[in-house]
Amino acid sequence: MVFRDVDFEIIVVDDGSHDGTQEIVKQLQDLYGEGRIVSTITEARAKKLGLGTAYIHGLKHATGDFVVIMDADLSHHKRLETNASIVTGTGYVKGGGVHGWNLMRKLTSRGANVLAQTLLWPGVSDLTGSFKLYKKLVFEDVISSCVSKGCVFQIEMIVRATRKGYYIEEVPITFVDRVFGTSKLEGSEIVEYLKGLVYLLLTT
C-alpha cells in the first residue's frame, strides 16, 4: 500500500452527480475501512451548486495541514514536493502538456487563460486547472475572501492569493483527458466566466 506510512484522508464532494459516485465511495469504505487507510467523507447534494461551494464544503471536513484539490476523473498525475504556500499544476510550461484533447478544447482552454492573464496579471500560466496544493491555513485565508461559486472560482483563488502576497509555485503536469464520462461546457458558463473576470478586474 503506497500510503501506509502517510497520515491522509480523502474527501469526496458529490455535487449532484448521477454517475454512481456514491456507490463507488461506499465500496471503497467497505474495502479499506472508514477512518483507516482511506477516510472518505461524502456529501450528496441535491443539485450542482458550483465548484466554489464544493471546495468550501470539503474544507469543513479537512483535518490535515495541507489540502490537495483535484478532479476525481483521473485527469491529474503528479507528485508534489515544495515549500511554497500554493503549488499549482500546469500544462503550459516546459515538461507539461495535455493528452486526449481535441483542437477546440485546447483553443478554449488557452483562450480562457490568455484573456484572464491579460486582464488580471496573476503571475501563473494556468488559471483554469484544478490540480493544486494549499497549506490549509492559506487555503482558509484565501477562500474566505472569495465570492465566486462557479467556473471563475479557481481564478479568483489564485488572483486573491497573489494579491495577498502568498508564494505560488508552478509544476509541470500532463493533463490526461478523463477516463469516464464527458466534460461539459455550457453557454451560461461562458457568460458567467466573462462576468467573473470583469468583477475580479474591478475588485482586485
Approximately what portion of the residues adopt beta-strand conformation?
15-25%
Give the overall average pLDDT: 79
- Alpha carbon gyration radius: 17 Å
**Looking at the chains present, what oligomeric state does this protein adopt?**
single chain
The spatial strand order of the largest sheet comes to 3-6-4-7
Uncertain residue segments: 36-40
Shape: globular
Summarize the structure.
The chain is α/β, with parallel strands linked by helices.
Describe this structure in words.
InterPro entries: DPM1-like, Glyco_trans_2-like, Nucleotide-diphossugar_trans. It comes from Brassica campestris. Its EC number is 2.4.1.83. It holds the Pfam family Glycos_transf_2. With 204 residues, this protein is of the alpha/beta class. It has a domain of 114 residues. The strands form three sheets. A four-stranded mixed β-sheet has the order 3-6-4-7. About 2% of the residues have low confidence.
Helix and strand topology:
Elements lengths: L9 E5 L6 H17 L2 E5 L6 H9 L6 E4 L16 E5 L6 E3 L3 H18 L11 E4 H8 L9 H11 L4 E5 L1 E3 L10 H17 L1
Parallel strand pairs: 1-2, 4-7, 5-8
Antiparallel strand pairs: 3-6, 4-6
Family: Belongs to the glycosyltransferase 2 family.
EC number: 2.4.1.83
Keywords: Endoplasmic reticulum, Glycosyltransferase, Transferase
